[in-house]
Every structure is written in C-alpha cells, then in structure tokens.
Amino acid sequence: MRRVDLRSDTVTLPTPAMRKAMAEAEVGDDVYGEDPTVNRLEAITAEKVGKEAALFVSSGTQSNLVAILTHCQRGDEYIVGQIAHTYMYEGGGAAALGSVQPQPLDFESDGTLDLKKVEAVIKPDDFHFARTRLFCLENTQAGKVLPLDYQARANALAKRRGLTIHLDGARIFNAAVKQKINVREIAKYYDSVTVCLSKGLAAPVGSMLCGTAAFIKESRRWRKVLGGGMRQAGVLAAAGIVALTEMVERLEEDHENARRLGEGLTEIPGFRLEPSGVQTNMVFFEMDERLRGVFIPFMAERGVIIGTGHYPIRLVTHYGIEAADIEYVLCAARDCSERFLVK
Ligand SMILES: *Cc1c(COP(=O)(O)O)cnc(C)c1O
Asked: In sequence order, what are the residues at sequence separation of 6 or more whose Cβ sits closer than 8 angstroms to the Cβ of residue 94?
C-alpha cells in the first residue's frame, strides 16, 4: 500500500546526496571550532541569509531559545504570537530556563501581529513592569507568508522603541520561494533569524541561528550552556549544506502540490478550505460534522497519515510527496465523502 505522510515536513528523510555527503564529511571537534564542515555550513548560511555569522544548533527550538537568552536578561520580556512556536511549542523554555517572560498577542488572520497592539504592550520604563526587550515574529506562520512591507514596519517599530527583533524563520525559504525573492530580502528586517534545515529542506537534524558576529559569539556561549555544543557535528552539517544548496528551489513543488491538494478538496462535498487559502506547503481545512470523527482513521486505512493535533485539519506537503500522491489522497478523500455524507 502507498504511504503518504502529511503530518509535517519534519518527516522528510535525507536525500541520497545527503547520505553521501554525511559519509564523506571531513570532521573535527566543533566545540574547539575545528569542524571544517560545520564551519563551512555556518559560512554558507550567513552568506545566504545576509548576516555576518551563523551558528549550527541541534533544533529550531534550541535556536529560538538561544536567541531569546542572548537578546534578553532575567526579568526581560519578549512579545510573541499566542500560537507562535517560540511561545506555544517550546515547553516554556524562555521562562523556564531564561527567566524571560513572554507577552503573547493573538495573531491576525494573515499571520502578522497587529503593530498597534504590539506597541500598546511595550511596557514603560518603570520598575513595576518587566523590561520589554524583544519582538518575535514567525514566517511562514501556519503556512502564511508575511508581507515584506509589514516586516519593514515591524522592524521600524522595534528600532523606534529600542527593541531587538527576532524571526522564527523555520520556513523562511518557503516564504522566499513563494515571493520569488532572495531570502536576504526577508532576513534584513531582523536582528536574528532561525532557519530550520530539517523541515522541507530535508536534512535529518539541525537549525541555524543567524545574526551579527557579536550576537553569534554570545549565542555560541548560550548554546554550550544549554548542552548544545556538539563535537564531530560535521556529519550532520554535511547534510545541512546539501539542504541549503540543493533543496531550496524544489520547495516550489511542495507549494504546487499543496495548492492542488487544497483545490481538489474544495471540489469534494464536506470539505471547506480556510479562507486564507493555500500559500506555501500547508493546507488547512474544516469538515462537515459527519466526517469529523471518521476522516482521519479512514485515511489512515488507505495509508494517508494525518496529524490529529490540529483543527482545522493541517496537511503538509514536502520532499518525498509527489503529484501522484496528491491525486491518491484526493481519491481517498472523495471515497470518504461518498461513504459518510448521506445525500
Ligand atoms: C518546527 C518549527 C520550529 C523548530 O522545531 P524543532 O522541532 O525544534 O526543530 C520552530 N518554529 C517553527 C515555526 C516550526 O515550525
């Protein structure tokens, strides 16, 4: 039976080129700064993202946490989306490990944070309040691409109010590919940027934190404090280099597959796409009451794996999923609709 795993782009497996690069990687002790492959990955990333320096970290969660610990001190605060990864999905790390308090705000339907609301929660310089230090955005946010002019205004607000600004750009390359721009055009609005290699770019492990040389020097310290100093990490970095140099343009295929999947679902009775539509590699949709309890198990019997953690349901396309898989998924969804919707 065909297996189509639409839970996340984190399920991607390393490409044959990655396996080869990993096997042949030149390595050394990265904590001593002596792993040539890690050093090369960091240099390539910094160049691509348009920052002075980059740091190879074990995960996106670690990258965001290191960024917050580097930007903020104990008793500081960061402004963040209510359902942002950096707030909702990182185990409260900033508070638990950094004594940094989040100030969450609801995302708007386009994945932005309303800048008037952001400005309104920046605390005055008064010892009753935490010190507002950092403003965090996410791009893509639930598959949505932040407009460039919005990011310019977010940057201007942060600078005017003396905040630093961080981007959780786990999927920044999806955004850049969608907007047909160089990723630097996005990254330039941020003091620091997290980039995930292990999502749609298909590397097995790793994320990159990017920023100024001084920021990355301090981040390197925090990475070590968090237990994230790795030794012959070049075996992993080698896959990361392939991810950055060979896997970016093909994200377009994931976007096209997601677009086709969304379009196909709207043609089947009982499925309703979210109004924001499909922008990158994620499809969010709602279902008729009668399909709610049965859809995911029905699809699982056909080998289509769908995550249960989201409603509206989230489907994610990625490396390893082909156009024919999308047609297969749509066919199974049509069968489900026909079986359970009594006409
Ligand atoms: C996946 C993801 C991360 C990082 O996740 P890890 O599993 O820790 O690598 C960060 N932000 C967003 C928006 C993500 O989707």
From this structure: 65, 68, 69, 72, 78, 86, 100, 101, 102
- Nearest residue to 211 via CA among 170, 175, 245, 165: 165
Q: Are 284 and 143 in contact (CB under 8 A)?
A: yes
Specify the pLDDT at position 86.
Answer: 97
pLDDT digits 0-9 by tens, 181-229: 999 999 999 999 999 999 999 999 999 999 999 999 999 999 999 999 9
By C-alpha distance, which of 27, 19, 14, 13 is closest to 56?
A: 27
Strand-by-strand arrangement of the 282-287 sheet: 271-273, 282-287, 313-316
Q: Whose CA is nearest to atom 3 of ligand 1?
A: 60
Q: Which domains does the chain have, with CATH numbers?
A: 14-246 (3.40.640.10), 250-340 (3.90.1150.10)
138 lines ligand 1 (CB under 6 A): yes
pLDDT tens-digit map of 155-184: 999 999 999 999 999 999 999 999 999 999
Tell me which residue has its CA closest to atom 5 in ligand 1.
Answer: 60
Percent of the chain with pLDDT over 90: 97
**What percentage of residues in the chain have a pLDDT greater than 70?**
100
> Is the beta carbon of 61 within 6 A of some atom in ligand 1?
yes
Q: Indicate whether residue 60 lines ligand 1 (CB < 6 A).
A: yes
Give the per-residue pLDDT at 275.
Answer: 80
| 59 touches ligand 1 (CB under 6 Å) | yes
Ligand 1 centre from 224 Cα, in Å? Answer: 20
User: Could you tell me if 224 and 216 are in contact, meaning their C-beta atoms sit under 8 angstroms apart?
Assistant: no
Angle, CA 164 vertex, CA 192 and CA 124 arms, to 5°:
160
The alpha carbon of 207 and the centre of ligand 1 are apart by a number of angstroms equal to: 9
Closest CA to 228 of 21, 76, 38, 10: 38
With cut-offs at 50, 70 and 90, classify the pLDDT of residue 310.
Answer: confident
* pLDDT over threshold 70, residue 343: no
85 within ligand 1 shell (Cβ under 6 A): yes
Residue 208 alpha carbon to ligand 1 centre in Å:
11
Residue 281: CB within 6 Å of ligand 1?
no
